[in-house]
Design goal:
rod-shaped; about 5% strand; about 50% helix; mainly alpha; Pantoate--beta-alanine Ligase, Chain: A,domain 2
Length: about 120
């Protein structure tokens, strides 16, 4: 009978399970952090795109001599060839606030929703 030396034996089941458990813990920490970073990046992209669309739309209105209307804004968006919202949100122009809102991301950045800390 030939006994294998310690170096030739390989890994035990306990060692393999310990490695899998450590990898599982790392994934449990990393995946939510990564997902949050992706969501924040998409929100920032949408915000930047809204600012670009607003500037371009207002410039278009100035050059054409037209006043804002929802029909003109929708026609402008149909002809716009750039990316809008990475989550496929729908842009709308809010004339009272002179801003462009996204159906997905605008409610996330609404300052009225933030709670003021009690002093």
């Amino acid at each position: 009978m030939h006994l294998k030396s310690k170096l030739e034996r390989g890994f035990t089941l306990i060692e393999l399970l310990a490695v899998l458990a450590i990898l599982g813990i790392i994934l449990m920490i990393a995946v939510p952090v990564y997902s949050k970073e992706i969501a924040e990046a998409e929100e920032e992209i949408c915000e930047a795109n809204r600012a670009i669309v607003k500037k371009d739309y207002e410039m278009n209105l100035t050059f054409s001599g037209n006043d804002h209307s929802s029909t003109l804004f929708n026609q402008y968006l149909q002809g716009y060839d750039g990316e809008l919202c990475p989550d496929e949100g729908i842009f709308s122009y809010v004339e009272e606030e002179n801003t462009i809102n996204c159906s997905i991301h605008s409610s996330m950045n609404d300052p009225g929703d933030e709670e003021v800390p009690w002093l």
